[in-house]
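yo

u said u wanted the structure for the complex thing, so here. seqs first:
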Amino acid sequence: MKVSLTVNGAAVERDVEPNTLLAEFLRENLRLTGTHVGCDTTQCGCCIVHVDGHAVKSCTVFVAQLGGADIVTIEGLAGPDGQLHPVQAAFQEFHGLQCGFCTPGMVMMGADIVKRHPCADEKTVRHELEGNLCRCTGYQGIVEAIMHASGTKVETH
Amino acid sequence: MQSFGWLRPRSVEEAAEALGNLEDPKLISGGMTLIPTLKQDLAAPSDLIDLGAVPGLAGISVEGDRLVIGAMTRHADVAASPIVREKILALAVLAGGIGDPAVRRRGTIGGSVANADPAADYPAGVLGLDAEVVTNERVIPADDFFVDLFETALGATEIVTAVRFRIPDQAHYIKFPHPVSGYAVVGLMVARLGNKVRVSVTGAGSHAFRVNEMEAALEASFKPEAVAGIIVDPDELMGDMHCSAGYRSHVLGVLAKRAVAAIASPRP
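structre next:
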């Protein structure tokens, strides 16, 4: 079947099987491999992208469900001039990563969180990250980065 | 994952017709349960009928003494809705506790209710708030809707279009979530509707159910102590690798007391 979407600002039209997952489509059809697949069971959040401005788990959406949708992946989050999104810049500043595998999902979720929760406190950020797992247990830097990007003053360690 | 056909109807009628004509079709709304089920090859439908392009199925409104939520309304929208928060805060809390934020962005109330997972949150809200499940064919009272494990009163070509909740005087939803999945080990709602009280439970049995004995006790005296001695027989509950039926029975009793306490003496 034919699907038409916008991905990172560009119109995309492809023939796909109805059982093609969005994560699969992004990685294998479009070669946008920044979106990671960790658990494939809707738990880890490594595959989070934005669909029409909201964070969703791309391993649990069929492309067929998304006709006409506007998708943004980690590759499309920075400005066209390379200027990092505030959440990306904050991850750099607060060392919000270790091995980096969960990072694309954490950043995409973080960008969704700061939009909905200006000046988010630690409890809010931790609660909102319920669906994102970091196996390096690097949550402290991640939480601080998202708090900082939301406008909350964070003491650096 | 097995392959299947894909239909994207533009109306409920068209979707119902497809349900009647195809070999072994399944409806898909948010897909938060169905897609993981397909990945594990636990279902092999011939076709998926995507309700995403049917207009008019999402939305929240008040009609008389009822709060009406369209079937394709996402959990995140119910949780954040000012109307829901004003009329039935407990329902907003329930929706805001399903899965995680990204799951709530996709999952829908119609999908959750129609799927009738024994550990899903919405069935407790549907039963506890004396809701009506509206379909393309009829209106089904909550008490007749949940039949068994993943089984509802829905017929083969019936599609949930909305759920109409009675607006209670007071209500509280509380769940003991499984720490990994977030599903309810036990979820419980207490609602006061006039001089009636409803106590509904999800997660503990093969489908959501009411605890009549607790309801009668609370109608006589709305205090946590009123339900203290009432034990739901573990033989009627589910046990699994995570916890026994006896444990669920115990948690159910504790949650009932806490829910009543939250209503009877709310924290300032």
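The mean pLDDT of chain B is 97. Chain B touches chain A through 29 residues (CB under 8 Å).
cya
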